[in-house]
């Protein structure tokens, strides 16, 4: 199928904008490639240090004739999604030996959970944990004793951080090894209903805790389609998984065989073979566009409007929100997965999953079919779903032509919507994003007086006091990267949802992030420039009328222009300390705007 002309035009726009940075990046990884295999060049004492920690592989490592795979792991056992990685390294070492290679754990990176820190101080470290992970990945690979790498990570900042660091070693073949989602527990819609009842004082803490534990009950990612599972959809679309690896459950034969296949495939795409596929060549302009398309077609997390630009910049590719907006106008919405529907990701997988979506997009000329991937068969391989066949082997049969459940996944001929769920908003309050895939159309435009806050607890207190029981635009400012690390504001979802359920016209306007689970309440987020440093959110006063219109792309304070120009900016809150936040001051000071990725590391490196 011929590529849609608008996708071609957006891709050309990105290529043209990225020309200088991409050329510099490709020159970098070419120099690294031409320097050859580093292990034979290392001194004997250096090699002895690198091999001293292993017994069973030492002889093969010392011989230096086989590929050595570096494993970068985000394992810990307090995060359900990453607890599954406990046994992976020892298994992967065995599978490497099967393929005539070796494997070593190159290093570990931190993995924090927004679900644990949501609404509390630790959330202000969340976005910058991504830069920390990127730097940790670079440290792990800096020993230069590896000819390829396997990246073990799955959740919100972990996958972007792993890729941002790994791409600076883009001459190496690499892939992502996911762990899969937990099996379904309490349905997400029921969990959300208990949260709203608790916010209204109609459910006890014990009832809320029971509901939450029933929803988040075992190892694996959470089952809603938030940032973690949007990560997995994007990695499939970028060709960085073994095809179909995203949503196989932990502890299954299928999950084990997909991980085994990942190790074997790494040995096939190394630089000594005839199928060399370095990470920096796989992640190009086409891959970045494919990831954006997959995100839009599935109503994925708004967090990736920050993460994907940051990943792209690490590879010398510059994508902006206008690219997302233009793609959203022509990409159909093919899924309804919570919070954009009632099904969870297990239901999504059973109905066809990422493979069905990618197959449909390719069939409609809505993805770059010629993009390089780690799979032998290119993007077409990601349109087939893995199974364990009658011979107990891994296989990828063709998918049925029809969806397994049309309430969850649909074909391009019968989408849920003719376009994706993303818009840019702009006006005298700056430039913002809004996700509308779960917002009812009659709420795409909200015009109401605002109430201004700079702390989430202030919103909770005002809600409990009944001060927000009216049409209202809740403004949360001084929540940007340079102010406080740009925390997610998902804890505001239940009270705002309650207000909307009461019939009030409600919206959120903020320079912070919303969750990957953002849903039915319209939210203008990631506002740039942020309030700290003179952004226009600092001029707002309680009672100002704000117009938010996703139809027309408007975000305006309806204030007399002369008065608006004369207003002073509100003073920001003092810098917060405690919970280690003071240690991240250098990242806050150096962070770039959200549209560029919200990264201090990339800004400092001028990437």
From TrEMBL:
Q: What is this protein called?
A: Phosphogluconate dehydratase
Give the stretches traversing the membrane: none
Task: Please report the stretch or stretches of sequence annotated as the Dihydroxy-acid/6-phosphogluconate dehydratase N-terminal domain.
Answer: 68-380
Where the record annotates domain Dihydroxy-acid/6-phosphogluconate dehydratase C-terminal, the positions are 408-596
Xref: NCBIfam families: edd
Q: Which residues form the signal peptide?
A: none
Query: Would I find Iron among this entry's keywords?
Result: yes
Task: Give me the reactions it catalyses.
Answer: 6-phospho-D-gluconate = 2-dehydro-3-deoxy-6-phospho-D-gluconate + H2O
Q: Where does [4Fe-4S] cluster bind?
A: 155, 222
Give the source species: Sphingomonas rustica
Q: What does this protein do?
A: Catalyzes the dehydration of 6-phospho-D-gluconate to 2-dehydro-3-deoxy-6-phospho-D-gluconate.
